[in-house]
Write a structure and sequence with these properties.
alpha+beta, Sortase, Chain: A, 2 domains, eight-stranded mixed β-barrel, five-stranded antiparallel β-sheet, 3 helices
Amino acid sequence: MSRPRTRTSKARRWIEACLLLAGVIGVGVWGWSHVRMAVFQSWGNHELDHRTQRLPPAMPAPGAPAPPPIQNGALIGRLAIPRLKMRAVVREGAGQDTLDVALGHIPGTSLPGQPGNSGIAGHRDTLFRGLRKIAKDDLIEFQTPSGSYNYKVESTGIVKPDDVAVLHAGHYPEITLVTCYPFYYVGSAPDRFIVKARLVDPPAAPAPAPTPPTPAATASAPSHDRILPSHDQPSHDSTLPSHDQPSHDRKGAVSPAIQKVNFRVTTLHSRQLAPGIMLRLTWTDARRHRANGWLWMPREQRTIWLWNQPAHQPVSFRVPAGGPRRELTITSVTRDSVTGYLSSTSGF
């Protein structure tokens, strides 16, 4: 009578041992995945901090070959959402190997701070767990080796995995965060939760309509070539237009007045020079009087890159295409800013 009980007891102990072993293995795998992610995050933070202490390299000169594509797993930067106390390293790629240890920059989307749409993916149960509490107007900070960029949340939404339209470029530089949804779903989640945020730039006040100066005002007015002081915050003084006096040729004909908009832009900030024309500065070399950045025309989805742009060398362009000719001229380059003017013969 005791043998059946013994056999049952042994079978029960064997099952209990197997379940205990499976539990230990499961906890071990879970713990190892978190330890591995923490190690990679620490390593990425250290690498980013080290690289940001060095001067960013100059952008390639015009006509130079296009840079090679970013390798999978390469360090892109660090994303932080202060209100949610979220902070994570971002690497190139959206595959499982990348998302297991970092947030992933979706290949084919623009890089942070550049015109277009930057796509960032992450797991809902690890680094992007806090996205379930994100709200409109939350600040998203993105630090890269070449500079830091701030985005403000504009909207959230739920889409299907094949809805790639959310990654298409818009009229303004933006970032799109993507994670699985629902957040507490067990297994492979059927939907995607997205967060749309726009790059925060201090907008310049629109230039008032130009008015011809009177003779009395011309006699007492200060020189229009003076660059009025400005700060990173919007300032009406930073984009005040100036008007050069009409010139007369020998036959007495009057040539069109050249209108100028003076500007000052600090590194890693943007300024609207005229309606539909934005200037962003990314790097300066005060010793060589050169700067990097770009002109961005959102209405036309057009970018003019400024690579090692020297001071006092005008950059000519037309906006819109076939429209009036404009010239951007940098007159001074400091350690963290440039000053100059945008000129046009047909108004702004």
